[in-house]
Amino acid sequence: MTPLPAALGGVDLVGWRLDNAQHASAWDSGEGSYRAARRWNLKGVRAVYCSLDPSTAILEVAVHTGFEALDIVPHVLTSFSVDDLAGVHVVDSASIPDQGWLRPGTATADQQAFGTELLARHKFVLIPSAVSSHSWNLIFISGRAAAAYALRSQEKFALDARLHRSTN
Fold this sequence. Notes:
Elements: E1 13-20, H1 31-35, E2 47-51, H2 54-65, H3 67-72, E3 75-82, E4 88-90, H4 109-121, E5 124-128, E6 136-141, H5 142-145, E7 149-156
Parallel strand pairs: 4-5
Antiparallel strand pairs: 1-3, 2-6, 3-7, 5-6
């Protein structure tokens, strides 16, 4: 169950990530973003992309793979707690130089450089999701934030098959 937010009695900041099962043990390696630039990092930066809720983590993967792939290929849903709340930098959407960066589409080099600089200055970056504009992504570099988070759980992911059912 997703922990309650602090305003409702929860105490932990929990991050969520969905990975192909074969990569689940290396969930916090940042290998994918190291090999290829992503929305908020330049190539060569081991950024780990997560969300503040499991639904957004699922959408973030589905936007790239499709829901059918999430049902066919085994995936693992990972949760972790952030122990150093002072190390979390919240990016207000108004502080982003180009509001287009918060909409779906291809990331620009300026956008990737902006995110890379944020990751160099902060253990964790909390930034609005482009997939779900009312949701948050949590990004970090594991080597920089290693002592500031802890794995909570990893479980086999099961997609509700209705999400990719044919409408014919």
